Automatic annotation (TrEMBL):
SUPFAM superfamilies to which the protein is assigned, alphabetical: Acyl-CoA N-acyltransferases (Nat)
Alphabetical list of Gene3D superfamilies matching this protein: 3.40.630.30
N-acetyltransferase domain residues: 32-198
Recorded superkingdom: Bacteria
Record organism: Streptomyces marincola
GO MF entries: acyltransferase activity, transferring groups other than amino-acyl groups
Name of the protein in its database record: N-acetyltransferase domain-containing protein
InterPro entries registered for this protein in UniProt: Acyl_CoA_acyltransferase, GNAT_dom
Length: 198
């Protein structure tokens, strides 16, 4: 039992003894926050992406040599200015802010919610984080916050898709979503936003 408790704690679970029972709950990061993107955050977001992410992870494909070319940086800004920052936004984008020991929160990635036109009350979620902070439970915390925002915005379902090769993304989605459909070219996850997300 002691060994099981040690392993559970190491895996990020909180253990509480209540009478004869041992309550096991999953701990989520509380040092992460989503703030609606604005011009100031957009410039910090571009810095985070250029420093520590691959363009293919964070924006639609742009022709040309690999890496953060001048054209790709411009396309990144244009992408956000024509989607969430336009006069008629087609999606909501949030900067992922990570609290630090000093100097205020850092922008470490982006998360978005976009209505799915052919599916009423359904939004599509997407997110990316800079490499430095991946694999530390941040993605799970962000996805949960997105689900809360989607529900608060009136959505009944949240969907997300990834590629069969993207193991981290699949694990992230499988842990939260109610159904996960695996196709040859894509993995599609769906979460019913019930009362728990209010
Ligand atoms: C996908 C992404 C957002 C995940 O965020 P993250 O903070 O690294 O994820 P977490 O640390 O919360 O881990 C989520 C799950 O993935 C697993 N995981 C994380 N990194 C992994 C890796 N490199 N390989 C395998 N599993 C991994 C974790 O163990 C965890 O699984 P568990 O809940 O079963 O323990 C991040 O890797 C990323 O930004 N990738 C590039 C962009 C991208 O692929 N976006 C698609 C999102 S739909």
């Amino acid at each position: 039992m002691a060994e099981a408790e040690r392993l559970l704690r190491a895996a990020g679970f909180a253990l509480t003894t209540t009478g004869d029972a041992l309550l096991v709950t999953r701990r989520f990061r509380t040092d992460v926050d989503l703030r609606p993107l604005d011009e100031n955050l957009l410039s910090r977001l571009l810095d985070a992406a250029v420093e520590d992410a691959d363009p293919r992870e964070v924006m639609p494909a742009v022709a040309g040599p690999a890496g953060w070319t001048r054209e790709r940086r411009a396309a990144f800004l244009r992408f956000h200015r024509t989607r969430s920052l336009s006069a008629h936004p087609v999606e909501s984008t949030y900067a992922v802010l990570l609290a630090g020991p000093a100097g205020g929160p850092r922008v470490v990635g982006a998360a978005r919610l976009a209505p799915v036109p052919e599916q009423p009350l359904t939004v599509e979620a997407g997110l990316w984080l800079r490499r430095q902070v991946r694999g530390e439970g941040l993605g799970s915390a962000v996805l949960r916050q997105l689900a809360g925002l989607a529900r608060a915005g009136g959505a009944a379902h949240m969907v997300a898709s990834t590629t069969p090769e993207n193991v981290a993304s699949q694990r992230l989605l499988s842990a939260l979503c109610t159904t996960v459909t695996r196709r040859e070219d894509a993995v599609i996850a769906r979460l019913a936003l019930g009362d728990a997300w209010s």
